[in-house]
Design goal:
The chain is mainly beta and about 375 residues long. The chain has three domains: about 60 residues, SH3 Domains (SH3 type barrels); about 100 residues, SH3 Domains (SH3 type barrels); about 140 residues, no CATH class. Helices cover about 10% and strands about 45% of the residues. The chain contains three helices and 24 strands. Strands 15, 16, 17, 18, 23 and 24 form a six-stranded antiparallel beta sheet that branches. A five-stranded antiparallel beta sheet has the order 6-5-4-1-7. It has a five-stranded antiparallel beta sheet with strand order 13-12-11-8-14. The longest helix is centred in the N-terminal third of the chain and has 15 residues.
């Protein structure tokens, strides 16, 4: 009798427990990656003039590289306490750096948005930096920053904003410099102190906010000497006249009181014209008690019998708080307000007055 044929059974291979755990962790990681974004590099940007990379986070370390302001770094590793980050430079150098020396991707993207938004905005003046200063993404001492401007660097002024000096205390307090240092008393509860910040555009077309007191407005010397204790906010060239073979500019000048935090950009205007007989500047027009805001528009316009004249338009706020655009026509040396047909002049305050120099009188500045 033949023995029955018994099919050969191949034993099933069972993965060890630790291998199953690794598979589970791998699948869990894939499920949380949002569609394969795990390989997307994480970037941070150098927000200090220069900083060294170190081979270890310790009191004694070796330098593995040097990074410079604005450089993009690839983040390789974060410490648990988030004080140090291991990064790779565009040159392939790797090492640890303090996280407070870096700006994140969000801050970098905000600067890119500002640069795109204001790339064609007309400059309201130019200024020179007094020292090395930080460029912030928003006005305020405690806001994020990235770029640094060098001493005596030229920038274009785009707009002004007054913000409280007393802001929320943040990690930025640990990384102070000349344009953000504040007395410890200012971090405590107290009266609100306002200060001026300017939106600037530098030679590289980068746009951001700079503390106003770190900037010196570029104003022609022949005009600056007549500020009469007021702060010149902006000076615009309206026209030029020929005198003894030289073209001499005539200016619209906006002024305000010499203190920060005013609820307007300027409250006075003066127009300086050039007297070709006496070879000097004279005030052709003056107006006080304004509530004016930048920007200012310059151009030309047809004015009926007077023909095509230069003009400028100011953005003003009336006594009742309503915004309006006021056009001024300039027929040298006469400056006059212009109202379109059907447009009525706003109600005048008792304090507000305009001083227009008569045609036959030249007021010395």
């Amino acid at each position: 009798m033949q023995n029955p044929v018994v099919p050969k059974v191949t034993p099933r291979r069972v993965l060890p427990v630790h291998a199953l755990l690794w598979v589970f962790v791998f699948l869990l990681t894939l499920s949380g990656c949002g569609g394969g974004n795990s390989d997307k590099p994480d970037f941070m940007y150098v927000a200090v003039p220069d900083a060294s990379l170190r081979d270890r986070v310790a009191t004694v370390y070796n330098k593995t590289g040097l990074v410079h302001n604005g450089e993009r770094l690839v983040v390789l590793e974060h410490m648990q306490n988030r004080r140090f980050v291991r990064v790779r430079t565009p040159r392939g150098e790797e090492g640890w750096i303090q996280e407070r020396y870096l700006a994140d991707q969000q801050t970098f993207d905000q600067f890119g948005h500002l640069a795109n938004q204001f790339k064609a905005a007309p400059a309201q003046g130019t200024a020179t930096t007094s020292d090395q200063v930080k460029v912030h993404v928003e006005p305020g001492r405690k806001t994020g920053y990235l770029y640094l401007l060098g001493e005596k660097e030229k920038v274009e002024l785009l707009e002004r904003r007054a913000v409280p000096r007393n802001g929320e205390v943040s990690a930025a307090k640990e990384n102070k410099d000349k344009d953000t240092d504040a007395d410890d008393d200012q971090d405590k509860a107290g009266p609100v102190i306002m200060e001026d910040w300017w939106l600037i555009r530098d030679s590289q077309k980068r746009v951001g906010w700079v503390y106003g007191r770190t900037l010196y407005l570029d104003v022609p010397d022949e005009i600056a000497q007549y500020a009469e204790g007021q702060r010149i906010v902006a000076a615009y060239k309206l026209d030029e006249v020929l005198d003894e073979g030289k073209q001499v500019p005539e200016y619209l000048v906006l002024l305000t009181e010499p203190k920060d935090g005013m609820p307007f950009d300027f409250n006075q205007l003066r127009v300086f014209t050039w007297n070709t007989h006496k070879h000097r500047y004279e005030t052709a027009y003056r107006e006080r008690d304004l509530s004016g805001f930048l920007p200012v528009s310059l151009g030309r316009q047809e004015f009926e019998k007077e023909g095509n004249l230069r003009n400028f338009t100011l953005h003003l706020k009336d006594n009742d708080g309503k915004d309006r655009q006021q056009v001024y026509k300039f027929n040298p040396p006469i400056v006059r307000k212009y109202y379109a047909p059907g447009e009525e002049p706003p109600a005048r305050s008792k304090k507000r007055r305009a001083e227009a120099t008569p045609r036959h009188v030249h007021q010395r500045v």
